[in-house]
Design a protein that fits this description.
The protein has 135 residues and is of the alpha+beta class. The protein is 56% helix and 13% strand. The chain has helices spanning 23-36, 42-54, 63-78, 83-96, 116-134, and strands at residues 11-14, 17-21, 102-107, 113-115. The protein has a two-stranded antiparallel ribbon with strand order 1-2. Strand 3 and strand 4 (113-115) form a beta hairpin.
């Protein structure tokens, strides 16, 4: 069952750059590679996905990371036979997302923005919690 709560941002806020429509780009750069993801090509495709997320280092809201997290979560729920591959992907992303990827609105206990893999884990846990609470 897929949660009815879904954030699908169509714009990201970038430092020094006008709003840019990225939802179609993220869809193309991530959804299509996810369609091809197998154990045999895991490293090359996961590296491409992570590289794409890491290009969003100038975003102040980590919109790209949010969208990618949502896509991976949906796939893991919808395609349970492939859940092990998606778990591998989540682990690799948590280890490899650049610490420069951040959400200025998501802060740790010291008031500093949560970044990189820690931010990905927070987004993923939040998404799991939303799905659980919706039943």
């Amino acid at each position: 069952m897929i949660s009815a709560i879904r954030r699908v941002p169509t714009r990201t806020q970038q430092k020094g750059v006008a709003d840019v429509d990225t939802s179609g780009i993220v869809d193309q750069k991530v959804r299509f590679p996810l369609n091809e993801l197998t154990a045999e090509n895991f490293n090359s495709i996961s590296d491409r996905i992570i590289a794409w997320v890491n290009k969003s280092e100038n975003e102040t809201d980590a919109g790209t990371l949010t969208e990618v997290t949502e896509l991976i979560f949906e796939r893991a729920i919808d395609e349970t036979l492939w859940s092990k591959i998606y778990a591998w992907l989540c682990r690799k992303m948590a280890e490899m997302i650049s610490p420069k990827v951040q959400d200025d609105g998501t802060k740790n206990a010291k008031g500093k923005p949560i970044t990189g893999g820690q931010l990905f884990r927070k987004y993923l846990l939040t998404r799991c919690r939303q799905d659980f609470e919706c039943g």
